[in-house]
Write a structure and sequence with these properties.
The complex is a heterodimer. Chain A is α/β, with parallel strands linked by helices. Helix content of chain A is 41%, strand content 22%. In chain A, strand 4 and strand 5 form a beta hairpin. By secondary structure, chain B is mainly α. Classes of the chains: A alpha/beta, B mainly alpha. Chain A: One of its GO terms (cellular component) is plasma membrane.
Chain lengths: 268, 457
Amino acid sequence: MSATAVASALEVQSVSKSFGGLKAVNDVSLTVRPGEIFSVIGPNGAGKTTFFNLLTGIYEPDEGSVRFFGKDITGMSPDKVAAQGIGRTFQNIRLFAAMTVLENVLIGHHIHTHSSYLDAMLRTPRHLEAERRAKERAMELLDYMGLARRAGELATSLPYGEQRRLEIARALALEPKLLFLDEPAAGMNPQETDRLKEDVRRLRKELGLTIVLIEHDMSMVMSISDRIAVLEYGSKIAEGLPAEIRTNTRVIEAYLGKGAAGQAGGRA
Amino acid sequence: MSRQTANVVVLGVAGLSLALLWLTPGALAGFLGLIGVALTAYLRPAMAVRAGSLALLALGFTLALSQVPRVSILFYGLVAVLVALITIPGIPRWIKGLLGVAVLLISVPIAGFNNTFFLELGIQIGIYAAMALGLNVVVGMAGLLDLGYAAFFAIGAYTWAIFGSPQAANFLSGSFPLPGNYFYLFMALAIITTAITGLLIGLPALRLRGDYLAIVTLGLGEVVRVLANNLDHPVNFTNGPQGITPVSRPDIGWFHSLMSSVGVELDARTDYQFFFYLLVLVIIGVVVLVNINLGNSRFGRAWIAIREDETAAKAMGIPMLGTKLLAFATGAAFSGAMGVIFAAQRTFVSPESFTLLASITILGMVVLGGMGSIPGVILGAAALTAINTDVLKSFSEYLNNLRQAGVLNLPNQVEPAKYERLVFGVILVLMMIFRPQGLIPERRHQLEIEEAKEAQQ
C-alpha cells in the first residue's frame, strides 16, 4: 500500500447515488486526513445525510469508491463498516428506548464483547468476565462523556443534550478510529452547543479520533472545523479552510441566493 | 388508605378466606380467596403482611382442594398466588422462593392426586409456557413476528413420535419402537433438529422485514403441517391425518421408588402425570434460566437493539442476519424440546395439534402476557391454556345445567366451548385496546425504580 493511501483516514472518490430520477449525491470526492475535524455543510436537501449514508453502508453508491485508511469499504453493510472502526450518531437521536444508558453503551461494545453463545447461556466464568470488562469499559466511556451517574436510567429519560452525548458515548464504545456526527448540535441551546464543541475537540485531542460532521450551526462549524466541504444539490461546490469557505462566493450564493454574495461576503 | 388500614384489611380478608376455605370449601370461599390475593396486590400493605397473607391464602386453597377437588376456581387461586408472588414487589426473595416451591411441589400435587385433571392442566400450561418463552425470544426480544412457530413444535413432536412408535419400521429396518428411555436422547436430538430447521427456515425468511416475515413464516408453518398430513405416501413417514400412536414413554420405575422413599405412593392413574408435571417444571426452570441468561448477555441486548431500532443496531456493528437467526434458532429449539414431551405425554401425535391456530395461540400468550416479560409470558400461557381447556368448558356446562333446570331459555347454539376462537379474539382485542403492553409488561429495570420509590415512602 502506498504512503499516500495511508495518509488519508477517509478517501471518497466520485461517489454518486440516484433515487429514481433524482441525483441525490453527484460525483462527490473528498479526502479526510487522520486526526482532522472535517465538516460537511450545505443548505437543506443538499444531500448531506445521503452522503453520510453512502459512507456508512446504509446505501450502496451507484458509482465511486470509499476507502477507510486505505481499505475499500464501498458497498459494505453498515455492521461491517462499523466493525472497521467507524462510529456514528444520527440526525434524529436513535437511542434504544427500552434500554438503560449503560445498556445502550454496551450495545456499542457488542463486537468487542467476546463471549460465545454457549458461555452466555450457561453463565460461565468466561462470560461473566467478558461482561464485567464490557461494563467497566462502558462506565469509563459514560464517565468520559459526563453521564456516569445516569448509567441506570432509561436512555429516553435523559434531557436532550445528554441524549446527544449518550449517542456519542455509544459510538465510542465501538472503539472507532473515525466518528461521523450527523447534526450533533441540532436542537441544542447555546450552552449545550458550547459543551459539544469542547467534547468534539477533546475526542480528537485525547482519543486521536478523526471526526467528520454534518452541521447547520455555522458558528460551531466555523470554530471547530479544520476543513469544510460544501454540498449543494448533491454536488460538492467548495472545499477548504473555514476562512476560505466563509468568503467563497459560490457558497454564499448557495445559502443566500444569487446576488447576495456582494453584501453578505465575509459575514456568512 | 393508610398502610395500617391496608394491613388490617388484607390480613382480615386473608384470615377469613382461610377459615372459609377450610371449613366450607367451595366456589364461594375460593372467590373470596381470589379477592384476598387481589387486595394483597393492590392495597400495598407492609412487606410482612404481603408475604403472610399470600402464605395463608395458599394454605387455604390447598386445604380446600384436598376436600373438594372438583372446584377449579380453587386451583386458579393457587395460580393467582404464584402470580402475586412474582409480581408484587418487596417480598424478600427467599420467602418468594419458598412459598413458590411449596405451592408447586405440595399444593398442586395435592390437588392433582385428588383430581388428575389439575396435573394435566399443569402439564399443558407448562408445555405452552415453555414454548411461549421460546417465542418470546423471537417476538418479544428480537421483535421478529413469527406466525409459524407451531411448526417447530410439530417437528419436535414427530421426531420422537416416529422413532418412539412402530412408525419408523415403515421406512427403516431395525426394531421399533425404540425403548422409552431414548426419550431423553430424543429431547436433545429434537433441540438440534429444530434449531437447524429454524436456521433453514430463517435463512430466507429473515432477510425480510416486518409484515413480509410474518407472511412467510405463516406459509412455512403451514408447509410443515401439510407435510405431516401428507407424508403417509409413497413412504409412510407420518401416518398422515390419523396420526401416530402409541408413542413410547420413558421408563419411570426409578421415579416410583424415589417417590415411595419420600412417602408418596403413586398409582397407574397419576404416576406418569406426576412425572411429566415435575419434568415440565424442571424444563420451565431451565428455560427461564436460559431466557434470563441470554437476556442479560450481549446476545439478548443485541436482540432488543434490533427490535428497538434496526438501523441504529446495524450502525453499532451488530450483524442483522446472524443475530436474527440466532434468535430464531433459539426459539425453535425450545419449541422442539417441548414437542418431544408433548408426544410422550399424550402418546399420540397428529397434524391437528399444529395448525395455524396453535401458532396464533402461542403468539397470543406472549402478547397477552407482555412481550419480552418472562413472568408475563408464563402468566399469558397459564391464562390462555386455562381458558381453552377448562374455563370455557366449565362455563358451557354451567349454562347447560341452567338450561336443563329451565332457569335459562337459551338456544343450543350458545355454547361457549364452541366459541373458543371468538372469546380468544375478543380477549385479544380488549387487551390491545386497554393494556397493549400486556398483563405483566416488560420491566427492564423499572422494578428496581419502583422498589426504590417505595423504600422512600
